[in-house]
Amino acid sequence: MGEVSTVDLKLDPKYDHYTFPTTNPATGPGHPGHTTPEQDALVVKFREELEKEGYTERLDTITLLRFLRARKFDVPLAKKMFTDCEAWRKEFKVDEIMKDFEYVEKPKVFEYYPQYYHKTDKDGRPVYIEQLGKIDLTAMYKITSMDRMLKNLVIEYEKLANPRLPACSRKSGKLLETCCTIMDLKGVGLTSVSSVYGFVSEVSKISQNYYPERLGKLYIINAPWGFSGVFSVVKKFLDPVTVDKINILGGGYKSELLKQIPAENLPVAFGGECACQGGCELSDDGPWQDKQYLDPPAAATATSDAPAPVPAATTTEAAPAPAAEATA
Question: According to the UniProt record, where is the region Disordered (predicted)?
């Protein structure tokens, strides 16, 4: 496609009103600040086609680039992905959920399925942790429902886009669009697979189709015997860029995690030094809780369940379901 630029993001004055850095020197081709003139032209074409169909939201350049990267800069495919996402957002009532939904049962649900954001890695990205081995859907459905769990999933994806990633970008001084994910398979066995398949399938669908390009690194720890062999077959069907983000580790994962995550940010349970009062899994600790890294309107509602408004680059990637993200 031509020579890749390493200049500031080419902004659209109508939609791009970012209050955080818009380039990251470490990211590759097709990312903000690392696009070719041809790719810049495709962003304009993509936006114009969406405008002609009446879309007015989520048309900022960073968001459009994520959808284009997810579809290898094929505008018709990216357009279908975007419009399908907008239809889903309307059907699932995402805006209403963000305003009204309260996941009051979260502490009890986390006893069976911990999935949470906790501080940042050495690149400044949010760390997301999921412990799949503790899943007990029978017990969880006595506390909550699949519908409520999926609504919480969506809230976390929305909060990743805002305020988490913008806050992390401000603190690090560079654009951050992805997460560092730890997926703990300790306790996962073949007998539990069928019982959680329906839920994981729904999670995967949401992650892959509606929140693309959010996976930065994925550490699969406590991988059971034979898992690496299975993955060696599966990765043949994955994009090489995605495969490079995935690390399969057994029980001796501590040193590898600490290469990417500062010990003071990694929970004790995973070999780090952090032991938040009340438990790391419920703390939601990170730059997104620090007023100096939030927009002034966001700072006033930093502890609210609803994300504070950032003018652009708001959503469409929180969240749980890193296994699904690994294929996005």
Answer: 287-328
* Within-domain flag for 169: yes
Q: How far apart, in whole angstroms, are the C-alpha atoms of residue 65 and residue 35?
A: 9
Residue type, position 245, single letter: K
85: CB partners within 8 A, 6+ apart: 67, 209, 210, 316
Most confident of 10-14, 133-137, 145-149, 258-262: 258-262
Do residues 296 and 214 both lie within one domain?
yes
Domain of residue 49 covers 1-92
Assign residue 28 the CATH number of its domain.
1.10.8.20
Rounded distance between C-alpha atoms, residue 58 and residue 64, angstroms: 8
The long-range contacts involving 8-16, CB below 8 angstroms and separated by at least 24 positions, are: 8/33, 9/33, 9/61, 9/62, 10/35, 10/40, 10/43, 10/61, 11/61, 12/47, 12/59, 12/60, 12/61, 15/47, 15/59, 15/60, 15/61, 15/312, 16/60, 16/61, 16/62, 16/312
154 and 273 in a single domain? The answer is yes
Closest CA to 130 of 207, 243, 67, 63: 207
At residue 135 the predicted structure's pLDDT band, cuts being 50, 70 and 90, is: confident
